[in-house]
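re: that chain from earlier
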Amino acid sequence: MSIDTATTPERDLLRPLRYLWRVPLLLLHIVLGILLCAFVMSWNRHRVMRNGREPFAHRMIRWWSTALLRIFGLRSVRFGQPLADPVLFVANHTSWIDIEMLHSQRAACFVAKAEIASWPLVGWLAASGGTIFHRRGSNHSLSTVMQVMVERLRDGRSVAVFPEGGSGYNGVLKVFHARIFQAALDAGVPVQPVALRFARAGRRVIDAGFREDESFMGNIVRLLGEAPMDAEVHFLAPVPASPDARRRMAEQSRERIDAALQDVVPGDHRA
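^ sequence. v structure.
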């Protein structure tokens, strides 16, 4: 599988034109997101999947996320099938947009860094969607987060985490932290690895996420001008539970995601 290390040609004459229509659409979509959080999520956020049927709030999250990706020129494509709630999804992490990629296919409570909670508007939107905030480097915060994760899973909500503990660069998949897998063991739910992959014309694009030292706003501005890409969400085979070997669960998850990032995994997909 070849890898495309550049997202666009050196001279992309269409980039300025993309900003002309994408920026107004993004602003309008943010307003729609505020309305959804205020009038839908505020009274429907605790609903859970019953008999495989998604609650209305979850469908709205998927619709909003899919449309947001489209505004950025990203077509959401699914490979494989997500397990029914509740499940612990573990995914690779390259950018803020990873959350929207997974949300375009399955609504889940994400674990994210605590700094996001203080970001204007973004923090409120994330909290309304059920995000669990974690202060990195704090064992007390991690213990609290683990407890909340177990509670959400036992209540029937799926939770999604990035076991790398931070975003990677240049297509490098970092080591997965094993402790986070204990939440699935305590709640008695399966673990399903998810590979998040960008591609254009079948070739993997490795720098669509954060570049080294790139800011959140810098990444948003860059992606808004990029040529269209596929945002692939690969739902992989669940990892067998190993109560005495969380490290093995983490390693298996990483191995399956790494393989999917390199090769297209056959399976069902949709735009």
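The helical segments are 15-44, 56-71, 97-103, 122-128, 139-154, 182-187, 216-224, 246-262.
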